[in-house]
Design goal:
Number of strands: 17
Number of domains: 2
Low-confidence stretches: 61-72, 99-106
Helix content: 40-55%
Structural class: alpha+beta
Number of helices: 9
Strand order of the largest sheet: 7-8-17-13-9-12-11-10
CATH architecture of the largest domain: Alpha-Beta Complex
Oligomer: single chain
Order of helices and strands: HHEHEEEEEHHEEHHEHEEEEHEEEE
Mean pLDDT: 81
């Protein structure tokens, strides 16, 4: 009996311990379950937050896009309608653009043609910029009027020093020169066969833009240099030239090489050095040389007193060659080296020459005048003139 009682008491003493362990396990299981639910809730909330942020970003981007895409979206129907007009003469789409009041007024009278779509116009502008023309270094402005006026102070403002005791003296009045640059109509007339236009694989817009840009570049490139100002821009070589020591406003100053139709036989590079320093210091910082290929071929052989070439080719693609450290623009419309010719120009053409143009370009389709070909009459308005006679100097191949 004693042994049994002892076992019973031991068994009774273990029961509470077993019960407590079971409660701990139950509590732990409940805690882990609650923690798992909490973790799942957090994940769900994070996913919902990410989704809301993504939607917000999309809405923000969508809200910002119209400023950038509205023009592009408006250009698509213009380009499509313009393509239909070029291929078949169907101008209903272009007239419809005007009726609905789009951003661009594409339609004009039958004799005036239709406004070129922005993509084609941009291609033409790119061809003009890439051409070796004074446009690359001149001051180019867009205008809506028939002329552009430039006000130039070709004398320095008078100045003086003032003190507290002395009476301030009156300064002189600056001399203001008004230069008016009229705009003239520049035209090109490329043609293509109707069979070629009917070919859907033929990119008529790119072809037309390249042809028009090339013809415009040739025409304006010559006018900016030698144009007489009659129904065309006034070229800077159309003005009178005087020895730079006697230079006055309204003419271009020149430096003589010392030999008729050639450089000096003894010191040929001296004339180039003299030309550079005949230009005022405030213009030299942005100055460029302008000459044609034949003249460049003669100049690039020149060396200084130490035997180093004055000419250096561009180190990177697209970088111009340099002469005495200044960039060289090769413009084939410049005159060749000859007796009394001014074959080399040096100056700050951004200050010295201004090109004014209207940004719009119009094309009229003519399927009748050159059958079986279709003519495209492209027109734009442009003008150019010297805006600062002190900013450009010339090298004259003469004794004096």
């Amino acid at each position: 009996m004693h042994e049994k009682e002892t076992r019973g008491r031991a068994s009774d003493s273990l029961s509470p311990r077993l019960g407590a362990g079971h409660e701990v396990k139950t509590a732990m299981a409940g805690f882990l379950s609650d923690f798992s639910d909490f973790r799942n809730d957090i994940k769900t909330q994070l996913k919902e937050q990410d989704h809301r942020l993504t939607m917000l970003d999309r809405k923000t981007m969508t809200a910002q896009r119209p400023v950038l895409s509205a023009t592009a979206e408006a250009d698509v129907p213009h380009k499509k309608a313009f393509g239909a007009y070029l291929r078949s003469g169907d101008d209903d789409g272009l007239r419809h653009l005007e009726i609905e009041g789009k951003a661009l007024n594409a339609s004009v009278s039958a004799e005036g043609g239709y406004l070129v779509d922005p993509q084609t116009s941009s291609t033409i502008s790119g061809v003009l910029r890439d051409a070796s023309s004074i446009r690359a270094i001149a001051n180019v402005v867009a205008v809506e009027a028939t002329a552009y006026d430039v006000l130039v102070d070709h004398n320095d403002f008078e100045h003086g020093w003032a003190t507290e005791a002395a009476t301030a003296t009156e300064t002189g009045t600056p001399q203001i020169e008004r230069i008016s640059i009229p705009l003239h109509e520049l035209s090109a007339l490329p043609k293509a066969s109707q069979r070629l236009l009917d070919d859907s694989a033929f990119d008529v817009e790119s072809w037309l833009a390249t042809r028009i840009g090339d013809k415009f570049a040739r025409a304006e490139g010559g006018a900016f240099i030698t144009g007489d100002g009659i129904d065309k821009p006034t070229g800077f070589l159309s003005y009178a030239t005087v020895d730079n020591d006697s230079w006055t406003w309204g003419a271009l100053g020149y430096v003589a090489t010392g030999a008729a139709g050639d450089f000096s036989a003894t010191e040929p590079a001296d004339a180039v050095v003299d030309l550079v320093y005949s230009l005022g210091a405030r213009y030299r910082a942005h100055a460029s040389f302008v000459m044609n290929s034949k003249t460049a071929g003669a100049v690039r052989k020149m060396k200084d007193a130490d035997g180093r070439f004055l000419w250096s080719d561009g180190l990177a693609a697209g970088e111009p060659a340099r002469l005495m450290g200044y960039p060289v623009l090769i413009a084939e419309d410049m005159p060749d080296i000859a007796a009394d010719s001014t074959a080399i120009a040096f100056g700050d053409f951004g200050a010295g020459y201004t090109i004014a143009e209207r940004p719009d370009l119009r094309i009229l389709r003519d399927p009748f005048s050159a059958k079986p070909h279709v003519l495209f009459y492209a027109t734009k308005r442009i003008g150019g003139d010297v805006s600062d006679f002190a900013a450009i100097k010339l090298l004259k191949f003469a004794v004096s």
